[in-house]
Design goal:
The protein is mainly alpha-helical. The protein is built from 4 helices and 2 strands, in the order H-H-H-E-E-H. It has a domain of about 40 residues.
């Protein structure tokens, strides 16, 4: 009985360690290196960033069949709706110094 309890404790700690190590910071490095592939760096990229996609010319993704978009055009999507005409960036927040 004592041996069984000891095995359960060892197994539990082993599984917890395995789970925690798989969720660690190493995944961030994998994500960053994955963003260096041609599906992220080509002139024309798949909106879904399918592995093996990306091209120097317009076309369709060989994996999902979506139309490629210009990489610069996709980067512009992040700024959509950010209107610089309606506010300024002087950051004085309504008070004088």
């Amino acid at each position: 009985m004592k041996l069984l309890k000891m095995l359960i404790v060892v197994f539990t700690f082993s599984m917890v360690g395995l789970i925690l190590s798989s969720c660690g910071g190493a995944g961030n490095a994998d994500t960053e290196s994955a963003k260096e592939g041609k599906e992220y760096t080509s002139a024309y990229i798949c909106p879904m960033h399918c592995e093996g996609s990306g091209s120097a010319t317009a076309g369709t993704c060989p994996v999902c069949k979506m139309d490629y978009v210009a990489r610069a055009e996709e980067a512009g999507e992040y700024m959509k709706g950010h209107d610089h005409e309606s506010h300024d960036h002087n950051h004085d927040h309504g008070h004088e110094h």
